[in-house]
Design a protein that fits this description.
heterodimer; A: 114 residues; mainly beta; Immunoglobulin-like; four-stranded antiparallel beta sheet; globular; B: 115 residues; five-stranded antiparallel beta sheet; 11 strands; 55% strand
């Protein structure tokens, strides 16, 4: 079974703090993704990576950065957290080509910025 | 702009009846479509997919229909069970052979199946 794990299920941070969200997958997938999920907006892509040290901006990259130093690990960084970054953050991984194209998701991190 | 739209935020059906979840898209480059199910406090899980060369795909109680001319797809669940109560997301991929596995998701529909 594919396993995608995220470092924290719940996180509370203060405005202005630097926040690291970690994601690890065990299926040797080339592609990894970070999304945020907000009510009424669905899943929106923040960044994705198709190889080690490679990254591409998604639809809402502002205020975020990412790091992929190893194939199995993809980190999302909030350089200076703001209250509008309070959200559910979901990490996913997949093979680069398909079909099938399905992405495998972690359980999510509920981040609250106060 | 929202390229994948699920216009119904919620749907309630009785156990044993059919659930029909709808999804519309605007990008004519989309050629592969997926449905995901999400329970609270869990990540989405893949349910079923369809390529644009087909108009129907079945997997047990789940069937996805694709109408390319209308840019519309639907997910049918028959019969519906209380355990199907979840948020369902529609997702689409454009020219997957060049864009890899990048997906665009809809807003989601909360399905509630009443016993």
């Amino acid at each position: 079974d594919v396993k995608v794990t995220q470092s924290s299920r719940y996180l509370v941070k203060r405005t202005g703090e630097k926040v690291f969200l970690e994601c690890v997958q065990d299926m040797d997938h080339e592609n990894m993704f970070w999304y945020r999920q907000d009510p009424g907006l669905g899943l929106r892509l923040i960044y994705f990576s198709y190889d080690v040290k490679m990254k591409e901006k998604g639809d809402i990259p502002e205020g975020y950065s990412v790091s992929r130093e190893k194939k199995e690990r993809f980190s999302l960084i909030l350089e200076s957290a703001s209250t509008n970054q309070t959200s559910m953050y979901l990490c996913a991984s997949s093979f680069p080509w398909g079909p099938p194209l399905e992405q495998y998701f972690g359980p999510g991190t509920r981040l609250t910025v106060t | 702009d929202q390229q994948v739209k699920q216009n119904s935020p919620s749907l309630s059906v009785q156990e044993g009846r059919i659930s029909i979840l709808n999804c519309d898209y605007t990008n004519s480059m989309f050629d592969y479509f997926l449905w995901y199910k999400k329970y609270p406090a869990e990540g989405p899980t893949f349910l079923i997919s369809i390529s644009s060369i087909k108009d129907k795909n079945e997997d047990g109680r789940f069937t996805v229909f694709l109408n390319k001319s209308a840019k519309h797809l639907s997910l049918h669940i028959v019969p519906s069970q209380p355990g199907d109560s979840a948020v369902y997301f529609c997702a689409a991929s454009a020219s997957w052979w060049t864009s890899g596995s990048r997906l665009t998701f809809g807003e989601g529909t909360q399905l509630t199946v009443n016993p």
